[in-house]
């Protein structure tokens, strides 16, 4: 092992992946994400950064996922996964941004040398990486640029192929815990499906089989994973996989998938002749880490069960099991949400357990959830999971139940710790979790939906010249900049019954997002439109694209 960078090799390869001069890249809440055709140099450099991060962590394996999730097919992106299967440490987001923007090969080498110095990276350490991509057409070329980055650092890199984002996170945690007492599972796709379906089968043993579940795979990688999952589930749960055209140009996330359903609050048109009244259905997003449920009632009206409804369903179920097990003194359950959580869900949950609101971004939710014994975190958009702390896992392993009912409840809790992905939100794992609860409670979609009634809400986005001019406080619920804008929003909100609205810059797109809710549908839409108008005027956008209406 050498103890300096192989600058000749880096130079040779970097010259094949020049940075476009007119683009500024940013490692945002979900890594780098923009048009796939502009990302070649970023992928090469991320390959180098992943290797450096691994060396910094004594050769522990780092994950790299190439995906743009729910975003349009022509977009792509890349994010790094830390050894425990979690999001990259915040300081390295900054390093990644700096390195991705070095204008030339010389500047890149200089930036890398400076990172090695400041982060005190021992270059003689090994570098280990596991990487994967989703089904986007730009994926193969980007993965090859990434592989050049690994080559430039002489890193040992394993190509995990085309898998969901949560499967890649699972691999990272498995590889890094292999052979320890915290071993998370077998680092193969088979290991993942076995782990999920074995625990699912234990949890629903003896329960009546549920009617078939329709799964909208967003024409993405979830179609491949859904098929494998379905085979492993056998008769225990019948999945009807829809929107599985992973090679059809333009199909990915197009009028289907979790983001389409959540934002438009509509049934994907492709399911109109598929879904029967009362039947349960769910949508995954393009990399299968988000999940939204829905159903049609007897009159054919569409009802959506989003991340907030999933959190409410799951938290109540876990609390009940903890209580039946006789562990309610030792195991406390809490929920983490963001400002996008429906006000009705927050009220419902706050009446039952501790609830914390944090800024948008999985890392904020995940870290806040880690502070509870059992932390349930879900974004309204359907991304989320449930974390069990190590002391809680130890409590469950050591507990001596005194009745058969207690013993069953503890077994179920242990199975849940196996079923639920502990690294990141996972649509397939969450789907099985929801199915377990529905099966235990004998709930239809309608009964689940009646836990609380959502306040009508609307999410909108406004394109502005500089989204960084928008700064927030109080878990993004209030604007501090541009000055004076928050007061004008407050003044508008006060005119609407049950009104709430907030504005924040997106961390993944070059837009400012506007959220509004109110007691009535028309009022929520109107409030969102008027706040979007305020933002637009403030930011000085082009009058022809001023927000006029939604729907
Ligand atoms: P931004 O673009 O920062 O709003 C979006 C989602 C987040 C999260 C990230 C990562 C909304 C309103 N925002 O972030 O919740 O999922 O993407 O994919 O859904
Ligand atoms: Zn996603």
UniProtKB/TrEMBL annotation:
Question: Catalytic site residues?
Answer: 69
Q: Which residues form the Phosphoacetylglucosamine mutase AMG1 domain?
A: 199-291, 306-443
Residue ranges constituting the Alpha-D-phosphohexomutase alpha/beta/alpha domain according to the UniProt record = 61-90, 100-179
Q: InterPro entries given for it?
A: A-D-PHexomutase_a/b/a-I, A-D-PHexomutase_a/b/a-I/II/III, A-D-PHexomutase_C, A-D-PHexomutase_C_sf, A-D-PHexomutase_CS, AMG1_II, AMG1_III, PAGM
Catalysed reaction per UniProt?
Answer: N-acetyl-alpha-D-glucosamine 1-phosphate = N-acetyl-D-glucosamine 6-phosphate
- Single GO biological process annotation from the record: carbohydrate metabolic process
Q: How is the cofactor bound?
A: Binds 1 Mg(2+) ion per subunit.
Q: In which pathway does it act?
A: Nucleotide-sugar biosynthesis; UDP-N-acetyl-alpha-D-glucosamine biosynthesis; N-acetyl-alpha-D-glucosamine 1-phosphate from alpha-D-glucosamine 6-phosphate (route I): step 2/2
- What class does this enzyme belong to in the EC scheme? isomerase
| Keyword list, A-Z | Carbohydrate metabolism, Cell wall biogenesis/degradation, Isomerase, Magnesium, Metal-binding, Phosphoprotein
Q: Where does Mg(2+) bind?
A: 69, 285, 287, 289
PROSITE patterns, alphabetized: PGM_PMM (PS00710)
- Gene3D superfamilies from the entry? Alpha-D-Glucose-1,6-Bisphosphate, subunit A, domain 3, Alpha-D-phosphohexomutase, C-terminal domain
Record-annotated Alpha-D-phosphohexomutase C-terminal domain positions = 481-532
* Binding-site positions, substrate: 379-381, 504-508, 513
Q: Which GO terms describe its molecular function?
A: magnesium ion binding; phosphoacetylglucosamine mutase activity
Function according to Swiss-Prot or TrEMBL: Catalyzes the conversion of GlcNAc-6-P into GlcNAc-1-P during the synthesis of uridine diphosphate/UDP-GlcNAc, which is a biosynthetic precursor of chitin and also supplies the amino sugars for N-linked oligosaccharides of glycoproteins.
Protein family membership: Belongs to the phosphohexose mutase family.
Q: What protein does this entry describe?
A: Phosphoacetylglucosamine mutase
Q: Which organism is it from?
A: Lentinula detonsa
